[in-house]
Amino acid sequence: MPKLDEATLLAHIAAFAQKPTPDGATALAQTGDERTLPALVQAMTDTMEGQDVVRYRQAVREVGAAPVLRRMLAGALADRRVAAHALTAHDPEHAPLIGLGLQDEDDQVRAISRRALRSWTASPALHDLFLATLAHA
C-alpha cells in the first residue's frame, strides 16, 4: 500500500475499527504506521479462533515490532495496555517484553501480560527467558 496522507490514514483506521476484516488488517499493517496498532490489536483480541485470528496476529506482528512495543510499554497507560495485548500475537521477539508487562504498575497491564505469558507456554524463547531469570540474583 502506498504511503497515505494523514487524513486518509486516520480514515482507514476509523473504518477498520468500525468493521474489521482480515484484508483490512493486512492493508493497515502494510502502511507500517504504528498508529494502526490499537485497532489491529482490538481486532485480534476480539477474534478468538479460526483463520481470521491468524491474519490479525500477523498484522499485529508486522506493525508491533519489539522496539515499538518496548517504547509503548514505557509510555502512557493506554499505550502500555495496547502493547501488552500485542504480546499475545506470538512473535518470538516479543517474549522478553512480557517481563516488562508483568512488572507494570497497572493491574490491567499485568493481567494482560499474564495472559500473554500463558499463551507462550510452549515457546523456546520464553523457556530461555525463564532460565535466564532463574539465574538472576
Describe the structure in your own words.
With 137 residues, the chain is mostly helical. Helices cover 69% and strands 0% of the residues. The protein contains nine helices and no strands. It has helices spanning 6-18, 22-31, 37-46, 51-63, 66-73, 77-86, 98-102, 107-119, 124-135. Helix 1 (6-18) packs parallel to helix 3 (37-46). The N and C termini lie far apart (48 Å). The model has no long low-confidence stretch (mean pLDDT 89).
SSE inventory with pairings:
Elements: H1 6-18, H2 22-31, H3 37-46, H4 51-63, H5 66-73, H6 77-86, H7 98-102, H8 107-119, H9 124-135
Helix pairs in contact: 1-2, 1-3, 2-4, 3-4, 3-6, 5-6, 6-8
How would you describe this structure in keywords?
mainly alpha, single chain, 137 residues, globular
Please provide a brief summary of the model.
With 137 residues, the protein is mainly α. The chain has helices at 6-18, 22-31, 37-46, 51-63, 66-73, 77-86, 98-102, 107-119, 124-135.
Name the assembly state.
single chain
Overall radius of gyration: 15 Å
First-residue to last-residue Cα separation: 48 Å
Unreliable spans: none
